[in-house]
Amino acid sequence: MLDLLKQMVAQKVKPNLQTFNTILKCLPRFHLFARLPALQTLREMKAIGIEPSLATYHYIIQLFCHDGFTSKESYAIIYDIMNELTGKKFSSRDPDDSMFFQSAMRVCSSLRDLELAYQVHGLLNTGDNRKFIGSDHRQKYYFSKFFNLLCLMEQIDVTLKWYKDLIPSVFLPHSQTLIDLLQALDVANRLEVIPQIWKDSKEYGHAFRNDLKEEILMLMARDRHPAELQVAFADCAADMKSTYESQGARQTAPDWPANPLNYITVLFLRAGRTQEAWKMLGLFKKHNKIPRNELLSEFMDSAKACNNAAQALEVVKLASAFSLPVCEGLTQRVMAEFAISPEQKESLGNLIALTSDSDSDSDSSEGK
């Protein structure tokens, strides 16, 4: 290709920007061998007075900062490019000029370099450079990568300000973008913002994204919180429960995932919505899902708080129905912590016998 340029000069055919950009665009097919020719091409175009366009630098980035190249030397060129471009205003000179910002932000994300990302974003907002953000797809890609970096590396109050500034006025987030934000809230211990994130998620069309809903429920249910926050979390859980129900109504064989069942139930319990929590246990039976030991222990705590031996017995029955090892420990709690009638004591004895028989049958089957 350099020979071609020399021939053009010899024949007094002056190359232009498109000549050099076409060469740079073709070079990536030669992989690592193309790096030196690329730099020579860039130096040559500057030497004859042709100012590189944004597309020129996009091609350089594509060549040096490919996902397959992970060495620091490969990525070092992005810093040289940004130092050269910062503060400049660009006019449209190549159809691929609109690909530069997407490429640059991709590299910032790969390097996890927030300072560099701010530098790229500053260039985007210099003069009329924002017109080079590209199509809606490229714009969403750019801002998703930028916001992901903010969630990973910026202080949470700054991240939340960017959230308000960018979403939804600049771009509509993918569910993974909201999961990134939730994880940032978790790291910063700002879980009180979660109900608002769920409300926003519904507005952005993510009410049926199970991965997002499960992340929200997990964060709300993982630990105990002050009473006011538990109430807000339970309200959020009730709203999410309705989405699972409406989602199931549209399926020929509706099914509840086990984790959301456990999370929603425990959130109801902690907020004092005991009747709703007990109704959730019916869904475990209906969908043949096994409640976690921790959930059954919380039910026992709830029964103890209101001194309700009948409820405590129901917890043991449920554990027995699923042949759970925790059944024995729950039974001992009922015997030790509740005043039970002779009939209830007899019922407990029957449950213990059934569980023991079930365990013996299981051991026998394994022995065979």
Structure description:
The protein has 368 residues and is mainly α. The chain is 70% helix and 0% strand. The chain is built from 19 helices and no strands. It is elongated, with a radius of gyration of 31 Å. Mean pLDDT is 88; it is low at 360-366.
Question: Can you give me a brief rundown of this structure?
Answer:
The chain is an all-alpha fold and 368 residues long. 70% of the residues lie in helices and 0% in strands.
Enumerate the spans where pLDDT stays under 50 for 5 or more consecutive residues.
Answer: 360-366
Helix % is 55-70%
Please give the number of β-strands.
Answer: 0
> How many helix segments?
19
- Helix and strand pattern: HHHHHHHHHHHHHHHHHHH
Tell me the fraction of residues in β-strands, as a range: under 5%
Rounded mean pLDDT score: 88
Q: N-to-C terminal Cα separation, in Å?
A: 75 Å
Major β-sheet annotation: none
Shape: elongated
- Indicate the radius of gyration in whole angstroms: 31 Å
**Structural class by helix and strand composition:** mainly alpha
